Amino acid sequence: MSDGQSSAQAPAGTRTPVGRPLLSLTLASMMDEVHAHSGAVYLLSPEQPVLEMAVMAGLPRAFAAPWERVGLSAPIPVSDAVRERRLVWVGDQEAMARHYPRIAVVLPYPFSLAALPVATESKAYGAIFVTWPGSHPPELSEWERDHLTAACDRLALRLERAAEQSVPVLPEPDLLAAPLVGGVAGTLGSVEAARMVARLPYGLCSLDLHGRVGFANAAASELLDVPITRLIGAHLWASVPWLNDPVYEDRYRAALFSQHVTSFVALRPPGEWLSFRLYPSTNGLSVRISRARGVAEMNRAAPPPGEAAPKRLVSITQVLSLAGALTEAVGVQDVVQLVADEIAPAVGSQGLVVLGSRAGRMRVLGHRGYRDTRVVDWHDGMPLSEPTPGSQALRSGVPVFFESRDELERLYPALTVQPSEFSAFAYLPLIASGRPVGTCVLSYATPHHFATEERAVLTSLASLIAQALERALLYDAKHRLAHGLQEALLPHSLPSLDGIEAAARYLPATQGMEIGGDFYDLVPTQGMAAAVIGDVQGHNVTAAGLMGQVRTAVRAYTAVGQSPAEVMRSTNRLLLDLGSDLFASCLYLRLDPARGRAVMSRAGHPPPLLRKPDGRARVLDLAGGPLLGIDGSATYPTTEVVLAPGSLLVLYTDGLVESPGTDFEDALTDLRHRLTDLGDRPLDDLADALVQHAADAEGRLDDIALLLLRALPDD
């Protein structure tokens, strides 16, 4: 909720004054032209890639508190607009949840938003966003688009001229509604109108955009059990203790954002339910209060007398936004980057170090903002027993704040020999699941006073960072385990074979542990070679372990001289004997470069492709049997294929050609066309090109194995 200030302050940093309030006038004119009901102007900080809110209009700045200072890389509309130099349109609540889920969590209301860069061809100066009520059409009209773009272009040119003339842009006040109507307690600007409202049997009061009461009739005073003199000029939830609940404040925000009538019921102690109906406009709200009828039971109870008031809405929205961002972090470096991009700018910090511990020593997990990295490296490997603020915060779990460099060196004299470009520090212990997982060090370029409220907010944010870091440390450990296991089970390199050139690629799925059952191998034999590619069902350690057994078995059966059909039958029986519930597809072939032949056997595996020396490519129609591990009596017929010098065989697993919403035959045809066009490339370049499309896909559900075999011409 708003704290009642009109936000006349401007963000830190030198701005440039022109003779008139340039930003305010531009924003007001833009909103008026397109009939928007709120908006804001951001300016790009000259010192760092951060957008700072300079002016807001139509709503209290507290509503946008989580985004007053945002990193240029943050996934929010104004940042996207500046980075990509384009208009960003979010047409409705569903689109907001889909593209900007963090904003949707904090502002779950129906409204439309457009964000545009304020930039010339050579330089970006900032961004503007404007919003409309939920009744706006889902698409932005060309007329609106043209007006918004033209206004931003004009502002960019004026800022460019101001910069060229060294004319500073002065801080400007936010644009809110007019002062309270009337200004005298209990009046509505007209004596007769006030008398009329006073005779109504239900309560009426008006709120400005900050939620302050501008008028209340006698019935409202009676229903709320608060004198009118205490209501006028105060926030409704501040003067009525049992309304001091973020749930009710949220209804107020919902009405202002959506410009739709909203309502709620609240329990007035000891046991009477009241109904509140909010009628919004662009300059405030009218509230109708009456006794709720037919409310027999409610899930919410009134706060007990004397209970502390909930946190201000600003703190709640900041925590919600950052919590939503941290849930998206996967690895440790993701957490470090997110804290640097969003949390550090939000709290005004210019430097960041994230410390962890291993084997009784401190480890630097990541850092940002330090020009001299020796200051950071000094912590790495230091015993936790050393008397440093970082180790003390990690051991004790108690945050430590130093408002100046002198204060830090007075308490820790050993640090006097360690130079630093920063002057104030917050050492925040990261406690998750009851144990310390690290320390977050926020550094400030100038001496900084940490007020009690700020210390509480930083400590709360540290708890969120700790949970994300704990998950990230576990993920990274699993990732290292999975990566090591996968590397151990696949060939480290392919053998050199007479008459055959080979190349292979393996890509794990982008979801899960990045480990799976796809495998390939190339085995030299007397005068010939054997190649195999397969896919064990699943993407976990069990599938990987079974894959290793299958690959070893194929090698063993090849070494004893079994034919391709016998190798498949033996491997099938092995899977059944192991008693696994998993199945496997497999393609096995025996290569005879001297005769220019290849004998193949297939078990439920996608068919290989053959590119002939003349450049034509086709899918080989091979006879085959069922998946391995299903039927002990299954047979696997063989097919002989001509492999002339210059021919190219492409063996692959289904992850290369299968994806949600894509037809298998279409994908196979596309692969054949790419092989026809690219097949003359060097084999390693061709392998990279064939997997590139799949490698770029987000959310890939399956692993990819690829094995290329090219018959070389005789010397």
Main sheet properties: 6 strands, antiparallel
Order of neighbouring strands in the sheet with most strands: 3-2-1-6-5-4
Report strand %. 25-35%
What's the tally of helices? 20
Tell me roughly what share of residues is in helical segments. Answer: 25-40%
Structural class: alpha+beta
Q: What is the overall silhouette?
A: elongated
pLDDT < 50 stretches: 1-19, 177-189, 296-315
Rg result: 34 Å
Q: What number is the mean pLDDT?
A: 82
C-alpha end-to-end distance: 81 Å
Assembly of the depicted chains? single chain
Instruction: Give a count of the beta strands, DSSP E runs of length 2 or more.
Output: 27
Molecular structure report:
The protein has 715 residues and is an alpha+beta fold. Helix content is 34%, strand content 25%. It is built from 20 helices and 27 strands. The strands form five sheets. The protein has a six-stranded antiparallel β-sheet with strand order 3-2-1-6-5-4. Strands 18, 19, 20, 21, 24 and 25 form a six-stranded mixed β-sheet that branches. The chain has a five-stranded antiparallel β-sheet with strand order 8-7-11-10-9. The longest helix is centred in the middle third of the chain and has 38 residues, at 452-489. Residues 1-19, 177-189 and 296-315 have low confidence and may be disordered.
